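To the team - inosinic acid complex, inputs and output below.
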Amino acid sequence: MASVIVLGAQWGDEGKGKIVDYLAQEADAVVRYSGGSNAGHTVVVNDIAYKLRLLPSGVLFPDKINILGNGVVINPKVVLEEIAGMQAKGIACKNLVISDRAHVVLPYHQRLDELQENALGSHKIGTTKSGIGPCYMDKVARVGIRICDLLEADTFAEKLKINLQAKNEIITKIYGAKPFIYQEVLEEYLGYAEQLRPYVTDTGVILDEAFAANKKVLFEGAQATFLDIDHGTYPYVTSSNPTGGNACTGSGIGPKNIDHVVGVVKAYTTRVGEGPFVTELFDADGNYLRETGREYGTVTGRPRRCGWLDAFMLRYSARLNSLDYLAITRLDILDGLPKIKMCVGYKYQGEVLKRIPASLNVLAQVEPIYEEFEGWLTDISSIRKYEDLPANAKKYLERLSEVAGVGLGIVSVGPNREQTIVLKELL
Ligand code: IMP
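Output:
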């Protein structure tokens, strides 16, 4: 297999970082294609935790090419801080390349994200307040500033002036907040431009060359399927397309270059921010999942909402993304539960649904159809072979795979690289 997309099949925080890091061992290049510093994951190698927001997980390997594609929105300050943090831990980040077509997250995007969220009150999305939505808004409105513009001092100065005039009007007149001072932003960002310059190039061309040389390429999704602007629980979504199709658009390659798509699935479900969540738990089981799984946001520290695995959602995710395999993470978190439930379908007004409803009003009223499983009540974190898993754990996994309609590829039983059970070589 030459190229694989690894993406979140639920609402994010599935543990994609760990799976990408694991598969990156075999890859020649790792590419991020959407989102920005709203993402956050922790990769543990030799008991050292690396917190990544923008950098692809492949940066931990000095010999891989790491690409931030054109579909990513880049906060220069965050990426530079992240590079410096990695360098302080001995990771040089020499093979990082950033697309000249990626859009830049500027301080007014972040400010507007905060102001818009606060103004929405009880209707807020629950964003990470990283400026992602406002940056993608500018991209689509064709007023955005790309990395290539940032590197041309005159172009940046002109575009920043136009943007800042418009944004300051909104910031001061609509929200009554403090405006930005043009000269300050200009100087700060021209400074970042010089630090970023060595990393910037046409990353689509690098990928083309990699494919021509039969290199193995890993596409690393950020956020997840149900946070997709088109296919997620709109408007409680992010402002980009984390689904598989965007791996191509967001990195400047054609669809024929993709061989396989792997959906990362946490053995239960979590969500941060607002929006519908059919299998959400408000009881002791929910607390167990949150505390045992340390389910608190990497970027915001917010407690995550927790619930049973929704395998019906996964079936939809499988169709949307053409999933070939599932990578199940955090199965070990379920070790202490005597009974485990899995949602295998939805009922609405007494009828079993065939698909996930688009209407949030309907979704708010659907009832989950649960199947109950006996827990295994054993520590599985040191198991390395599928056949050595307790029979009840295998039953749970096999039913999950059956409802989703996708085979199992990987089962992860702990945060470390070696705590990984491989059923299928994916790269
Ligand atoms: P935004 O991407 O910051 O605009 O946030 C929009 C929604 O996506 C909110 O519900 C966030 O909590 C959620 N979100 C964004 N990034 C992530 C992520 O990496 N993991 C989980 N949820 C995320």
